[in-house]
Design a protein that fits this description.
rod-shaped, two-stranded antiparallel sheet, alpha+beta
């Protein structure tokens, strides 16, 4: 017991520059005044018969909820800093009006959606384009649950050449806005318009 108490007295010395409040609590429990740095390493800092102070908890237990709250606060601060320092990507090279006029972008509605098996990012969407009902494979599964986007208006590039993804033929591409943190958001008209309406 004596050796343990002598070690605690030594810890109050070496901990003081890094953990001053903890060192102070330790000295209060030992019922001692602060020792000078030169005393560190001695085995007789506490003399025989020395009366100890009241024992208290040196460190409080940190509950998981408190840790989670601090981690979330740091993440929120990081996100706010990233948003404040966001810079848009440079403009891509100019295109001609003829280049743009060849794109056929229509308003459509998602009428069915399901996750693509063995993938984390892909959803298989059935979209009413006003021209037809077609399948589009889209990498939005990390941001949207299939059942929650039924009825969602979208902007769809209908004359994009078909492409096979995970064995599914994708017949077009829906337009998404990507935020600074990578989050994807639907690009859709602010008012209700008919499926098949052209975006010019």
């Amino acid at each position: 017991m004596n050796i343990v108490l002598q070690l605690c007295a030594n810890l109050s010395i070496v901990a003081e520059p890094f953990l001053p409040f903890t060192a102070g609590k330790l000295l209060k429990m030992l019922n001692c005044k602060p020792f000078t740095w030169e005393k560190a390493g001695q085995s007789d800092l506490l003399k025989a018969g020395h009366e100890l102070g009241e024992a208290i908890l040196l460190f409080e237990k940190i509950e998981n909820e408190a840790i989670d709250a601090q981690v979330q606060r740091l993440l929120d601060t990081k996100k706010a800093n990233e948003a404040e320092s966001f810079h848009a990507n440079p403009q891509k090279p100019d295109i001609t009006f003829d280049d743009f006029s060849r794109t056929d972008i229509r308003v459509g509605t998602i009428i069915a959606a399901e996750k693509v098996a063995k993938t984390k990012k892909l959803l298989k969407l059935t979209i009413d384009t006003g021209i037809d009902q077609r399948t589009v494979v889209s990498g939005i599964a990390e941001y949207y649950e299939p059942e929650k986007i039924i009825g969602q208006k979208v902007s769809i590039l209908v004359n994009l050449a078909p492409r096979t993804l995970k064995g599914i033929e994708s017949q077009g591409m829906i337009l998404m806005a990507e935020d600074f943190d990578g989050k994807l958001c639907f690009v859709a008209p602010s008012e209700t318009v008919k499926n098949g309406s052209e975006i010019r």
